[in-house]
Amino acid sequence: MNDLRIVCMDNILDIEIKVDEYLKEKNKVESSYLIDIKRTRFNNDEGKFSILESIRDKDIFILSDVGNYGTTYKMHDIDVPMGPDEHFQDIKRCISAISGYARRITVITPLLYQSRQDKRNRRESLDCAMALQELERLGVDHIVTFDAHDENVCNAIPNIPFENFFSANIVLEELIKNEDISNLLVISPDVGAMQRARFYADMLRVNVGLFYKRRDLTKIVNGKNPIIEHAYLGSTVLGKTCIVVDDMIASGTSIIEVGERLKKIGAKKVFFVTIFSLFTEGIEVFNESYKNNVFEKLYTTNLSYIPIAYRKEKWLKIVDCSKRIADVIDGIHDSKSLDKLCNDNERVIKLLDNKR
Fold this sequence. Notes:
10 helices
């Protein structure tokens, strides 16, 4: 394991220490796997990236959270939050500093950069595919992400490995351990989330319902057609504990509307489950909805940035996926089969049987 080294960007510091500790414990070593780096940002917003130790012939893993808006820099003496574009640019700067020295470069972005712009409709940019191709041209050997919005975007880079790991089972384990899982019904908030909802329903061995978003196609608000109505399709929710699942929450208004609708038609309890909680408009709407008994709890992961102030809320349960990232790094480095990480259903099924 001497040649394994990890570059953790300062946008993912919450995870880096845990990943490092897991790897040290697993491989029975005392020295850290983390590389000493320096990210410089000039006052006009230009930047550079420096590696402060030798990485010759090392197996390098670059770990970055491109969705971390809590990282800031000074531009013309103004504090500016870093957006996904700036984070992605720093990944490229890091690759440039490493190229020619490292034996292999793997980029791990739990939240895939531009993942929602993964397909094109007429005259639209195809940002996710272009970014993946750019990483390939820069010499990246391996790309790893979690719960990609559409993993078929890997077709943009057919010549290098693209690994998409799912964290649904990690979330399911916490849900099963902490909640009453009797009389359940899994709910898909829209047609696009149906495949994910089906997976949760199959694992929990319950039925699935669907909300159809009827939109006003004559208007565009904040880049989207506004929702006119959430129409429900499926078995009755009366007296049920409903689990509403999706891959990502942005502002949260849509999933909260689903929760309100479920309570109106007789749901006993409502839980929200999502992998990435972006909270693009803050958490006030969640606080208000929680006070009004719209939902009991939101289960999410630490695969994307959540401000410290938000983490104390009673309705928020953050599931730690650091060990999964460490296992992925260890498996890729040692050329192990990753099938168990991709197909870990048995552990969830056993836990579910014991609970019931």
